[in-house]
């Protein structure tokens, strides 16, 4: 088996949410699309790069956008969900809110 494919990405997402005290995206279709994007990036790059961001295709340069990205906690605290809305706060979910476009926290010099 290809080592890149050994990771169960959905299980990773569920464990990550639990560890950080977050919730996962409740919309199953949207959640499946995000997990699929992470799986494709894992297969292509060898790491779980955020599916919503441009990549250098270089683990070192992309370390801030490896899931969960460096910016996720601040985004969740301020907006109720991370940039791609994979992870949400419990309060956000309880209120039944929909993800919105939020400002990108990644500094411009880190863009490819």
Could you walk me through the main structural features you see in this protein, from its secondary elements to its overall organization?
The protein has helices at residues 9-20, 28-45, 72-79, 90-94, and strands at 23-24, 87-88. It has 112 residues and is mainly α. The chain has one domain: Ferredoxin Thioredoxin Reductase. It contains 4 helices and 2 strands. The protein is globular and about 40 Å long. A two-stranded antiparallel sheet has the order 1-2. The termini are far apart.
| Low confidence ranges | 1-5
- The neighbouring-strand order within the major sheet is 1-2
Oligomer: single chain
**Beta-strand proportion:** under 5%
Mean pLDDT: 94
CATH homologous superfamily grouping:
Ferredoxin thioredoxin reductase catalytic beta subunit
Shape: globular
| Number of helical regions | 4
From the alpha carbons, calculate the radius of gyration and give it in angstroms: 14 Å
Number of strands: 2
* Helical residue percent band: 25-40%
The secondary-structure element order is HEHHEH
CATH class: Alpha Beta
**Main β-sheet: number of strands, strand sense, barrel status?**
2 strands, antiparallel
CATH topology assignment:
Ferredoxin Thioredoxin Reductase
Number of domains: 1
What structural class do you assign from the helix and strand content? mainly alpha
Which architecture name does CATH use? Answer: Alpha-Beta Complex
Taking the alpha carbons of the first and last residues, their distance comes to 31 Å
């Amino acid at each position: 088996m290809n080592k890149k494919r050994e990771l169960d990405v959905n299980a990773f997402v569920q464990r990550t949410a639990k560890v950080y005290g977050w919730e996962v995206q409740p919309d199953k279709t949207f959640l499946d699309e995000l997990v699929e994007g992470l799986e494709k990036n894992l297969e292509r790059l060898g790491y779980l790069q955020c599916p919503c961001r441009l990549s250098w295709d270089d683990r070192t340069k992309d370390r801030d956008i490896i899931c969960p990205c460096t910016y996720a906690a601040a985004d969740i605290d301020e907006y109720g969900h991370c940039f791609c809305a994979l992870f949400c706060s419990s309060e956000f979910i309880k209120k039944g809110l929909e993800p919105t476009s939020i400002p990108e926290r990644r500094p411009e010099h880190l863009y490819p």
